[in-house]
UniProtKB/TrEMBL annotation:
GO cellular component: nuclear RNA-directed RNA polymerase complex
InterPro entries associated with the record: RDRP, RDRP_core
Origin species: Hypholoma sublateritium (strain FD-334 SS-4)
MF terms (GO), sorted A to Z: RNA binding; RNA-directed RNA polymerase activity
Keyword hit for RNA-binding: yes
Key words of the record: Nucleotidyltransferase, RNA-binding, RNA-directed RNA polymerase, Transferase
Enzyme superclass (EC): transferase
GO biological process, one term: siRNA processing
Lineage of source species: Eukaryota, Fungi, Dikarya, Basidiomycota, Agaricomycotina
Catalytic activity: RNA(n) + a ribonucleoside 5'-triphosphate = RNA(n+1) + diphosphate
Family: Belongs to the RdRP family.
Domain called RDRP core: residue spans: 406-997
Protein name as it appears in the record: RNA-dependent RNA polymerase
Length: 1191
């Protein structure tokens, strides 16, 4: 609304008027209308006589009528309640005669407020950086050698035509040069720079040397957009780019350019500039001749050995010359010990050169070990410990997985890692598992490719990824072909490749033969084969990670789906039934795959997510079925599969999930009328209980580790509770435990701040199934919640139900829970615990209203409003239709070449994340909140984007509504501060929750950098001495209350002084554990730096401290970290437990020895192995007690 102003002094200008009005408009007068500062616009009419700077009148525009009315009540008329005077003249305000303000002005002031000083400072910084250039004469790419010499491997004489500039908007340095008439750019993101050295080399060459965590982006500049490249078209760069892109050396045109670079670095707030000199040489390390020679060796070695050698080279642990030097040793070891030993040796050796390079003193300081000696030392250690294969639990569904990651400039090889297998992998003998590769296509930062308006992304994906998918992937002379993907892998931009092999019957197995063996994809849906995405989605069922259960099913009964009267919806979409007997047998068979059959003693789950032949979905128990019976519905059967004899378990639902709020859900509930204070209260409780973890071990166990799923691989919560039972309430003398707490608390607070992941006690997350007995009325649900160690709860009354992700106002609705089932009802006979049972009556299934959900394994979030009435919305909204997206069809049957095309298109067109974040941003910025028309359009597009992997129909970027350029403070990446002028203070609930959390000062894990290239040697020696002293103090068991308390407890069962167990196997077990844990920590860091490794504390907790611009990547990496440590810990505990013939007392004795040994270890893994062994001690004691109670 516009307000007319008159009486403005001719002696003041526009900026003075705005500054003076700011003191009133941003005062307490308007706080009830604008919790954060508001924008406004001032326009002064020009003086028509041209005598003064303005005409003394003007217009003040305020965001809305309510604000303007309140302003006039305070400041209008000739005698205002509060006069606004400037230059001793009172400004007179009155309502403007103009009906509507200017549209452009209104749009501007509707935006959230940004501090003018911050904006001005940013503009000043941008202007300085835009105008500043550093002139470059020579561009060099090189390698940091082990003796701290920089070897130039490729260079370009730019003849003084290259320039280095700073881009504030993109937060990157750009080197621009010309070559053969084209303009090329090398872009280095600020956060990817490890360090910068600026010096005048030998008083002759003014040098800027960049050491990077990951390779830069190479581009060719076109008229409207840049073409991204894997290498530059300069001599030798194609060959050396995968290895020599982390150290870039610039020789400037004059020493004065170094001063200009330092000045611009300060303006850009780049604080990694040093001044030490780096020796330079041209050693031709990565010569064509060297690669040809290495390739000959790799072709002749067994694949498992060649894989590990290539992994050493590609991970930049060794350079090609160093590997060639080691070849004679490798050949000799192979001839003496065989391929399995040699491959295991090379994998273990992968961490040894890093330690030799980065933690020893400078060259000549007493460490003369050659790489050959290091390799032989590793051989001796491995011979003492004959465990060659990666330790893994005894369950049959795990296999050794080989991973390849292809980035724009290089590829990295990792593994083998024990992972959950799938139907295809299990079809072949374990010796053939190495023929399968899991290949990921990621950006250099190990993050997914992101849309960049300045880069032609589709063209680059086609150029980089296309040749691998359409033709072949060659590694060490072996040829792999694209095979398929699972749906979860596709979302991670990962697929399967396979190299041809002969199976046990002598038959040739190829990618084509594997696809043909899966079944018939045309009999059930003749249009399926014409849609590449749909066809690939059906193939992907066979690649879902599952547990295989060999159960003889007596009957597989086809039953019809339950549909609405009009046939539009299916109430039973994706869910069938099974008998109680079958449920128990599946559970029994799952237990049999575990050595000593140590599984939870609770009853069999009543719901499983399964794969069976060409069918997929959920099975819930039907108490009326008898025998070993399964009922399959048409909505579950996707194709005519070839194997109906084996049930594959994707997931069993034996316990309820906790309920956590998140940003989209909070934004939605706020829009529906739930007060901010509700979210604030629960966040405050979460913060308080998290910080209480320091009070006692019990508080840490229940309020931190157990609630947030931290330390689950090592069963930390159980160990802590057992220690508390022994009278140990704190561990004040354990720096390792203290650091574990620090990382855990920081993890939770970071999740609260960056994701609003707020726990809601008393609310639940449950998998959905159908009421096959038609007991429930429309809009009714039944939910029986049976926690592992708690009382059974029946939800009753109104329940707020939703399903993640929430994006439409109708995605949260209220349903009626019937409570405890009446005697004689179907739910009294079988309550199907830890599921939410939906009605099969009414006009539309409830799940379809919740983000287009179904019963194929979707989980639902439930808040019982009788218990938590504060979450009841004051508004409701009709759910969206969620009509299925149209399929992208071909006029001919699809081939795997078409599937490959779809994979490339998906990498470019996966916009679910963009749509979701734009919805949040626009809802934050718009006065209409979640009801803004752009938000409603985004909700529609989101549904199509979610369907894209199965429909093949992408959502065009041009269709996606965009938010304004300025972003809310909660959207700032972790690597960027909010005070840069690009972010405003959000007034929405998620913004206020974000600012309410103060994160402690974050430090990378102690081992995040195994060592620094050039720290003062004396200081590093002192650090090592201090660390050793700390470890020695930790083994002073005379006064250790933990040792004494645990020993007293163990003495109740065995005599620790008379143990006859051989300690050597357990020591070997620790050595292998240490090696595998180190490998896990090396492969799960977010950094590409050669020194990067997670700390032991991060590994045991299951978190990653390092900041990242893509938080989802850290989440995914933490998930795989926890899976890897879980497999490792379970395998070690099984080794301690022994085979079925080993007594529980022997299990306890071995665990005691393991704990005693670990306390003496000073090497990596010693601390966490002690916690692992302590957990095994308590587990063995529990088993002895249970065995005694059964007698």
């Amino acid at each position: 609304m516009e307000i007319f102003m008159r009486g403005v002094s001719w002696n003041v200008d526009l900026e003075q008027v705005k500054a003076h009005l700011t003191t009133f408009l941003h005062a307490d007068y308007f706080e009830h209308l604008h919790p954060t500062r508001m924008n406004f616009h001032v326009y002064l009419h020009p003086d028509k006589k041209k005598l003064h700077r303005h005409g003394g009148t003007g217009v003040l525009t305020l965001p809305n009528e309510e604000t303007a009315t309140h302003f006039l009540e305070l400041f209008s008329t000739a005698h205002p309640r509060i006069p606004i005077a400037l230059d001793r003249k009172v400004i007179i305000f009155s309502k403007s005669n103009k009906q509507q303000p200017r549209k452009d002005v209104l749009e501007k002031i509707m935006l959230p407020y940004m501090d003018p000083w911050v904006v001005e400072e940013r503009e000043r910084r941008v202007q300085q950086l835009t105008q500043g250039k550093v002139r470059i004469n020579i561009l060099q790419f090189g390698w940091e050698c082990r003796d701290y010499v920089y070897s130039v491997e490729c260079e370009k004489d730019c003849h003084n035509s290259a320039v280095l500039s700073f881009s504030e908007e993109r937060r990157e340095l750009q080197i621009e040069f010309q070559h053969e008439g084209e303009i090329y750019i090398i872009a280095m993101t600020y956060s990817h720079i490890r360090e910068i050295t600026v010096h005048n080399y030998l008083n002759q060459d003014p040098v800027i040397l960049f050491m990077l965590h990951m390779p830069p982006t190479y581009m060719c500049k076109q008229q409207s957009i840049c073409e991204r490249l894997s290498f530059l078209p300069i001599p030798d760069h194609k060959r050396v780019a995968p290895y020599a892109s982390l150290a870039i050396r610039l020789v400037c045109t004059s020493p004065g350019e170094l001063g200009e670079f330092r000045r611009l670095s300060r303006v850009a707030q780049l604080h990694k500039v040093m001044d030490y000199e780096y020796p330079v040489d041209s050693r031709n390390i990565f010569s064509a001749v060297a690669f040809q020679l290495l390739e000959q060796y790799l072709r002749n070695f067994h694949w498992c050995i060649s894989f590990q050698i290539t992994a050493l080279l590609r991970s930049l642990v060794l350079d090609v010359q160093e590997i060639l030097e080691l070849i004679p040793d490798i050949v000799e070891i192979f001839r003496e010990q065989g391929k399995e030993f040699t491959a295991a040796l090379l994998r273990k050796f992968a961490s040894h050169p890093k330690l030799a390079m980065y933690t020893t003193e400078e060259a000549g300081a007493g460490n003369d070990d050659t790489l050959s000696q290091c390799l032989r030392e590793t051989e001796r250690n491995l011979l003492q410990n004959p465990m060659l294969s990666v330790p893994k639990p005894s369950e049959g569904s795990l296999y050794d997985a080989f991973h390849v990651t292809i980035t724009p400039t290089t590829m990295t090889l990792e593994g083998p890692f024990p992972e959950r297998s799938n139907r295809v992998i299990r079809a072949y003998h374990p010796r053939h598992h190495e023929s399968f590769l899991r290949v990921s296509f990621l950006d250099e930062s190990k993050l997914q490719y992101r849309f960049d308006r300045e880069i032609n992304g589709p063209a680059f994906i086609r150029a980089r990824v296309g040749p691998f998918l359409h033709n072949q992937l060659e590694i060490a002379g072996r040829i792999f072909h694209f095979l398929a993907y699972s749906q979860s892998a596709l979302k991670e931009h990962a697929v399967w490749f396979v190299k041809s092999f002969n199976d046990n019957h002598g038959n040739l197995v190829t990618a084509d033969s594997i696809i043909k063996s899966l079944g018939n994809f045309e009999t059930l849906d003749r249009n399926l084969i014409f849609c590449p995405a749909r066809y690939a989605a059906r193939i992907s069922q066979a690649f879902t990670a599952t547990d295989a259960v060999a159960v003889t099913v007596e009957e597989i009964l086809p039953i019809e789906d339950i549909c609405t009267a009009d046939g539009k919806y299916q109430f039973t979409d994706g869910v069938g039934t099974m008998s109680k007997e079958l449920s128990r047998e599946v559970y029994t068979q799952l237990k049999k795959t575990k050595r000593r059959r140590r599984m939870a003693a609770n009853s069999a789950p009543s719901a499983y997510q399964i794969r069976l032949g060409g069918s997929k979905g959920m099975l819930s128990v039907d108490y009326k079925l008898r025998g070993m019976t399964i009922c399959i519905r048409p909505s579950m059967t996707k194709f005519d599969g070839s194997d109906w004899n084996t049930i594959e378990i994707a997931r069993s639902f034996d316990r309820p999930g906790q309920y956590f709020l998140n940003r989209p859900l909070i934004m939605l509930l706020e829009g529906l009328g739930v007060r901010y204070e509700v979210f604030e209260d629960y966040q405050n409780i979460a913060v308080m209980e998290t910080k209480r973890a320091r009070v006692s071990l019990g508080a840490a166990a229940t309020g931190l580790f157990d609630r947030y799923g931290l330390g689950t691989s090592f069963r930390l919560s159980s160990v802590l509770l057992n220690l508390e039972k022994l009278g140990i309430y704190d561990l004040p003398n354990s720096p390792f435990y203290s650091k574990m707490l620090d990382y855990s608390i920081n993890h939770v607070l970071r999740d609260l701040k960056n994701h609003a992941r707020i726990p809601v006690p008393g609310a639940w997350t449950l998998v959905g199934v159908a009421d096959v007995h038609r007991y429930l009325l429309p809009n009714q649900i039944f939910a029986c919640v049976k926690p592992a160690n708690g009382r059974t709860v029946y939800l009753q009354g109104p329940v707020l139900i939703s399903r993640s992700p929430t994006i439409h106002p109708g995605d949260a609705m209220i349903v009626e829970a019937i409570g405890r089932p009446p005697p004689g009802s179907c739910f009294h006979a079988e309550p199907i615990p830890n599921t939410v049972v939906f009605s099969v009556q009414g006009d539309r299934p409830t799940p379809s209203c919740l983000g287009g959900g179904d019963l194929d394994g979707d989980v639902y979030n439930l808040i019982p409003l009788n218990d938590l009435p504060e979450f009841r919305p004051t508004k409701s909204y009709m759910p969206a239709n969620y009509d299925p997206a149209p399929r992208k069809m071909l006029d001919r049957p699809s081939t795997m070449a078409d599937v490959a095309e779809f994979v490339m298109e998906y990498i470019n067109s996966d916009v679910v994340g963009i749509i979701a974040i734009n919805w949040l941003l626009i809802a934050d910025q718009s006065p209409e909140h979640i009801f803004d028309e752009k938000c409603m359009k985004l909700a529609d597009l989101h549904s199509n984007a979610v369907d894209y992997p199965k429909s093949g129909q992408p959502v065009a970027l041009s269709e996606i509504p965009k938010p304004i350029r300025a972003k809310p403070d909660w959207h700032a990446p972790e690597t960027v501060g909010t005070s840069t002028g690009d972010f405003y203070e959000s007034s929405r609930a998620i913004g206020r929750l974000f600012r309410a959390i103060d994160l402690p000062i974050e430090q990378e894990g102690r081992d995040a950098h195994i060592g620094h290239r050039r720290g003062p040697a004396g200081r590093r020696r002192q650090t090592a001495v201090n660390d050793l002293g700390e470890r020695l103090r930790s083994v002073d068991i005379g006064n250790d209350p933990v040792f004494m308390a645990v020993e007293d407890r163990v003495l109740d069962y065995i005599d620790t002084d008379r143990l006859t167990e051989d300690r050597t196997p357990i020591n070997n077990l620790f050595e292998e554990y240490s090696t595998q844990l180190r490998a896990i920590c090396l492969s799960h860091t977010l950094s590409h730096a050669r020194t990067a490794r997670l700390s032991e504390e991060e590994a045991i907790v299951g978190t990653i401290v390092q900041k990242t611009s893509q938080r989802r990547k850290r989440k995914d990496m933490m998930a795989t970290l926890r899976e890897s440590t879980d497999v490792l810990v379970r395998s070690i505990r099984e080794e301690l437990a022994g085979e079925d013939g080993v007594t529980n007392e022997q299990y306890l004795a071995r665990s005691w020895i393991a704990w005693d040994l670990a306390r003496e270890k000073t090497q990596f893994g010693g601390h966490s192995f002690a916690w692992l062994a302590l957990g095994a001690i308590f587990d063995a004691i529990r088993e002895i007690d249970e065995e005694g109670s059964r007698r």
